[in-house]
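#structure-requests
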Amino acid sequence: MLDFTSASFESITNSTLFISSLVSVALGVAIALAFSFKNRKSKGFLMTVSALPFIVQTVIMLVNGNVGTGVAVMGAFSLVRFRSVPGNAKDICSIFLAMAVGLAMGTSHLLLAVLMTAVVCVLNIVYTLLPDSAESGEKELTVVIPESLDYAQVFDDILSKYTSGSELMSVKTINMGSLYKLRYSVRLKDKTLEKQMLDEIRTRNGNLEVICSRAKTADSEQL
């Protein structure tokens, strides 16, 4: 029978394989559902995360005790990262969790696999429910100004009027150095006054480009 606490592959019976496979698929589905909570995920992503624990478990069972085969399989798994489209932080976390669960199931650590799935999935749901930067009024403001304007304090009065905090994150020259692109991190006092702030900025920068977008977070950035 399946050993719930330690790895043991001296004899893998049909019942052990069947139980391990069912639990792996169930944990994979739980991971897919948890990481799609309040997040749009493609069917391909959900299918991959659901099936990955079972696939890894099967591979680990097949290479048990064979060092040469194990090294070859490890090399094959290292190619997966380079054959896939880069994902955000949560996508990478779900893939690693699914692989770790598969490894645990493949070495008969059923309780460890269940514990990992429960802890990480609960943490993901809790952090998903926490307010993000968009709900707190945090924005990324990009403004283009002519080279004749001194970018150091050109918008300080406007930003102090409409924001509770602002920081100049970067300055970049564009259009052969005739224009500057400023990128600010701002926290709006009142989101309903965003248009008024942009209108005042457009008046000062000569109606050049102004972009107010959602602040970038680690979750939205590509890894």
